[in-house]
Design brief:
Length: about 800
């Protein structure tokens, strides 16, 4: 078997890309251009050589601040464009622009916009005040007109009214001209008129009444137009009020209450002719202000549209410049301050492209000295980089959510492309539900370009990111559903006639009379006549339980074999001899043997009790099997397998720690020979570890570590095999739940002649299918398949303690948020 594994082709496509640790020595004059070209290439991950310095102590901190300020201005422009509701398409730039020119342009545009906003705000405020004044003139005039019939000397104190906001100078002079002529020092009835929000009116009137102890008369009328609220900027409904009172103290109290409630007070002359004249003047001013506001808004929108056409290009340019300077801050100045020194990781296949980009940077910057690029030896572990496409990206993300693979470790995502959707389908098998999932995944794939350019919500974004996972899950669900012969829990004679018929020719109910086999088995999947029979549940339980064990043992064996390939790749003969071999022997001596018994029982049609066989294999291995014997030589084989399983436990536990101890002692005694590689001593593969740690060998720690691994594997072999029975449990639950919805909702409603009941039953059935079976059950099966991969499969070989390769690249800047 070992020769067979050794002759297999290398797993290059299943391992991360080979990486090189490189050093760059870049002249100052070509540094910016070189980093820019490397960002466009996106194949070099820089190390931060200044991690001991704060951001404000770095060399290019001023340039980063400038880019940050420009980003703030661009966000300001974007907010203004969004508030204005302008949709402008990006137009191509007429000519390239430098960062300095862009900075000047952004400052000019910001100053222009701020000035326009301030002028527009002042005009809008004046317009709102005049509009309120007009409404007060129209409504309060009717109140005052009615008071002329009363022979009560009225005192008008229009010039003493307190205004909540500063009025336009021309309006104030107009008000003064109208009110100064009517001043009077005589005591008598006075009034204050103004306007207030409708929702404040009741509390306003109540407080006035209590403050003046009822010595006032409050009159109000709704305004004919909505007025913009100066705080929220929304159009609100207001009312016009007039308060009649007497006395200086009452006037002072009323004015303070008006200020507290945000009521705007306006003077209204009692003479109707003056009211008409003032109304005409206010209307004229309103028309002029409205025209001015429209012209200002048109000019502002034109300026925003001009900015919007270049906004995206400017944003990307600023983000690129900021990213370049952030990267330059990770480089070190040498002692002469004439060149920058950088270090980083790059894939080996990308080295020619990086050299070409650096050479172009030297030529384009007219530098006298070239950029030095050379490979260095690194102590730390390289980053992990898997090249993925839009199909495999989601599967790789599922694996990375558990932990990023070590450098050059076997990648479980390659196998998960098939095993993950297949195990999901084993639990979700129904080809009707699978077709629904297929339609949903195809819809996401067809609209891929459109949805990829939009911002999606959390749930929709997750579904879109896993669209190809959903596609394979749907296809495998259809396949498993055809095997289970379930279409929304209803069986169909798709592949021919059933192999069974009723015992009696006249019978129609298989539940009472049973079935007999009368010709060859059903060609594909479960025979549809099992549906509704007396033995349906025992048959399906036995089938799915045994099938789950077979799948589980197969996948766990695959995990152990991948552990062998990892050990072989590292050259660790200790891991192969004292980890891979005893693990294979232990697992297959017990559960591999159980899988063999299942297959033999299926092929021979034996009635042997496998529970009895496995239990007494441990309790009484020498006892006679009797009717539970499936093949010749079964008893001695069971004894041999039991002994192998017992021997495999100390084989895993003891040899490896003592061999490591012996090798460590011989190394310090000066013996010169190569140390056998092992996962415990190959510290170069451990992240953030150095060669000096080879001296820190502690036999106690190594032995305890090996003991924990051995106990975990022995107990895990039992618990993990039992854990795969969730495939049987979830599949049975999905099938039974689907049957309940079909029989107790749809068929029950269809039994009535009333069309309303039928439609209601169909609606309830569709709702239950969509939200419970297609959403909740899909999520449940997804999580259980995820657990089987993360725990039962990957713990046999996968360390997952690496770190991702994150190159400096401009490609991801478009999706970044400031």
């Amino acid at each position: 078997m070992m020769k067979f594994f050794d002759n297999l082709p290398p797993m290059d496509h299943l391992r991360s890309e080979k990486m090189s640790f490189v050093q760059l020595i870049i002249p100052v004059e070509s540094a910016h251009r070189a980093i820019t070209y490397l960002g466009e290439l996106g194949m070099l991950q820089f190390r931060d050589l200044n991690d001991d310095k704060s951001p404000f102590q770095r060399t290019f901190v001023n340039q980063v601040k400038r880019c940050g300020e420009m980003s703030r201005k661009l966000r300001f422009f974007s907010d203004q464009i969004s508030k204005a509701g302008i949709t402008s398409s990006a137009c191509p730039a007429l000519q390239p622009i430098s960062l300095e020119e862009l900075e000047v342009q952004l400052a000019e545009h910001e100053a222009e916009l701020l000035e326009m906003n301030m002028n527009n705000e002042q005009l809008r405020q004046a317009y709102n005040e005049l509009l309120e004044f007009k409404l007060v003139l129209l409504k309060a005039g009717s109140f005052l007109g009615s008071s002329q019939n009363h022979e009560i000397p009225a005192e008008r104190e229009l010039d003493e009214n307190v205004y909540s906001k500063e009025k336009d100078q021309e309006s104030l002079s107009l008000f003064d001209q109208e009110t100064l002529s009517e001043m009077s020092n005589k005591a008598g009835l006075r009034f204050i008129s103004g306007i207030i929000c409708k929702w404040k009116a009741l509390r306003f009137e109540r407080l006035l009444f209590r403050t003046t102890r009822g010595n006032m008369f409050f009159n109000q009328a709704p305004a004919e137009e909505h007025v913009m609220d100066p705080v929220s900027g929304e159009m609100v409904e207001k009312i016009v009020f007039v308060v009649f009172f007497s006395g200086e103290q009452a006037k002072t109290k009323i004015i303070k209450i008006c200020e507290a409630f945000g009521a705007n007070c306006y003077p209204v002359p009692e003479d109707t002719n003056k009211q008409s004249q003032m109304t005409r003047e206010v209307s004229s001013r309103l028309s002029e202000l409205e025209a001015t506001l429209d012209a200002g808004i048109h000019h502002r929108n034109s300026a925003l549209a001009s900015i919007g056409s270049q906004l995206w290009r400017w944003t990307i340019m600023v983000r690129k410049e900021k990213a370049v300077y952030d990267t330059l801050n990770m480089l070190n100045f040498d002692v002469t301050k004439k060149c920058l020194v950088g270090e980083g990781w790059c894939p080996i296949f990308a080295k020619p492209q990086i050299k070409d980009a650096l050479q172009r940077a030297t030529i384009d910057s007219n530098s006298q000295a070239g950029i030095i690029f050379h490979v260095m030896h690194a102590i730390e572990s390289p980053p992990t980089y898997f090249r993925t496409n839009r199909f495999t990206h989601a599967f790789q993300e599922i694996i990375d959510a558990y932990g990023v693979a070590r450098y050059q470790e076997a990648n479980p995502a390659v196998y998960s492309v098939i095993t993950f959707p297949f195990l999901f389908a084993v639990m979700f098998g129904d080809w009707g539900h699978g077709i629904c999932l297929l339609l949903g995944s195809l819809l996401l794939i067809i609209r891929e370009k459109r949805l990829g350019s939009q911002k999606l919500g959390s749930f929709m974004g997750m579904a879109f990111g896993g669209r190809y996972v959903l596609l394979l899950m749907a296809l495998f669900s259809i396949y498993c559903g055809l095997i289970y012969n379930e279409f929304f829990s209803v069986p169909f004679h798709i592949f021919g006639e059933s192999a069974y018929k009723c015992r009696e020719i006249s019978c129609s109910d298989a539940r009472t009379t049973g079935l007999v086999k009368y010709h060859d088995p059903y060609p594909f999947g479960v025979d549809p006549r099992w549906r509704g029979s007396l033995s349906e549940l025992p048959f399906l339980n036995s089938l799915k339980m045994k099938m789950s064990i077979l799948f589980g043992v197969s996948q766990m064996n695959l995990g152990i074999i991948l552990g062998y390939f990892n050990a072989k790749f590292r050259g660790s003969s200790l891991d192969i001899r004292y980890q891979f071999m005893p693990q294979m022997i232990f697992l297959n001596s017990l559960f591999g043997y159980l899988s063999l018994l299942i297959l033999i029982k299926w092929c021979t049609g034996s009635q042997a009790d496998l529970y009895h066989v496995m239990i007494y294999m441990f309790l009484d291995p020498t006892s006679d099997l009797g009717e539970n014997q499936l093949f010749w030589g079964q008893k001695p084989l069971q004894i041999l397998l039991l002994l192998l399983a017992i021997v495999a436990v100390p084989w895993m536990l003891f040899p490896k720690p003592f061999i490591l101890r012996k090798l460590n002692m011989e190394r310090f005694q000066g013996r010169t020979y190569g140390i056998l590689g092992t996962s415990e001593m190959d510290f170069d593969l451990e992240p953030d570890s150095g060669r000096q740690h080879l001296d820190d060998f502690n036999f106690g720690e190594v032995f305890v570590h090996q003991m924990i691994h051995s106990i975990e594997f022995v107990l895990g072999a039992v618990s993990n095999t039992a854990s795969y029975l969730r495939l049987w449990a979830l599949s049975l639950a999905h099938s039974e739940l689907s049957t309940v919805f079909y029989e107790k909702i749809l068929l029950l409603a269809w039994g009535y002649d009333n069309p309303i009941i039928r439609i209601a039953g169909l609606a309830v059935f569709a709702f239950a299918t969509a939200f419970i079976l297609l959403m909740m059950e899909t999520l449940s099966a997804f999580l259980h398949a995820l657990r089987l991969h993360w725990v039962e499969f990957m713990n046999k070989f996968y360390h997952g303690d690496g770190y991702k390769f994150r190159p400096f690249s401009f490609a991801s800047l478009a999706d970044e948020e400031d």
